[in-house]
Design goal:
This protein is of the alpha+beta class. It has two helices and 20 strands. The longest helix is centred in the C-terminal third of the chain and has 33 residues.
């Protein structure tokens, strides 16, 4: 009875959707988090009769007889729509309004990318993220700096005692990809380049399609709880419906087994 196996693929598919939705909801307050969407496709069909089969010398069947064999997960797609901004008034909190990623470097030299702009300075004055990964290009804040200013174009200036004008200490660039959904998510709000994402393209914020920077803001998650809870309910109902199919198929088999009595 094929319905047993077809319904089991439906349950597995809905489990994938619910797992994806659960991860979105768990990260609703994660700075710079991008939600995911599970995508599905139907499996191959068991063809009992092709459409167009001759039914007489002059007529053909207008429709075929094909029974589907279930569903499979085809992708879990990252949605890089922009999240809302939250004002923090922290001088080292930076949000990107538009396209682009911050580039950072892991201790082993690997370049990673993130939308999380909650930066700090380490013991050397270097701008780093919460895990201590260095922002690229590297920028070091002087020890005697009294304030830091970051322009929408990424130019970083500081005010120092005894200096009549602000001093430029660096330039924050952002990086774009032709296919951000092809990036590999490694956790900690970090992404790694892959063959599917395309080559990274570095540039100055606000130029060539890159978004501008906003100092004193962070980008919140783009998860919408109403949508996720709706998806959770529909996923649960679909899972229940597929389990009912298995129960019904089992009862039909039981009925068949009882015919001899």
């Amino acid at each position: 009875m094929q319905s047993l196996y077809t319904a089991s693929t439906g349950m597995l598919g809905m489990q994938t959707q619910i797992d994806t939705t659960a991860n979105n909801i768990a990260n609703v307050n994660t700075i710079g988090f991008k939600k995911s969407r599970a995508e599905f496709a139907d499996l191959m069909y068991h063809v009992m009769e092709y459409a167009g089969t001759a039914t007489s010398d002059v007529t053909k069947s207008p429709t075929g007889r094909e029974v589907g064999l279930g569903v499979r997960s085809t992708a879990i797609n990252k949605i890089f729509s922009e999240g809302s901004l939250k004002q923090t008034d922290n001088q080292l909190d930076i949000a990107i309004t538009g396209r682009g990623f911050f580039k950072m470097e892991l201790p082993d030299g690997t370049e990673v990318y993130s939308r999380n702009g909650a930066f700090k300075v380490d013991e050397n004055g270097t701008i780093v993220n919460s895990d201590g990964y260095i922002l690229i290009p590297q920028i070091t804040v002087p020890e005697d700096a009294t304030s830091i200013s970051i322009g929408t174009d990424g130019i970083v200036t500081v005010v120092q005692p005894g200096q009549p004008q602000a001093t430029q200490i660096g330039q924050i660039n952002t990086t774009n990809f032709i296919n951000p959904s092809g990036l590999h998510a490694m956790g900690d709000n970090l992404f790694i380049e892959t063959d599917a994402s395309g080559q990274p393209v570095d540039g100055i914020p606000g130029i060539d399609g890159l978004g501008t920077l906003r100092q004193g803001f962070v980008e919140l998650s783009n998860v919408e709880l109403v949508v996720e809870l709706t998806d959770l309910i529909t996923g649960q109902r679909a899972y229940d419906a597929n389990s009912k199919i298995i129960t019904t198929s089992d009862e039909m088999l039981q009925t068949t087994n009882n015919l001899k009595r």
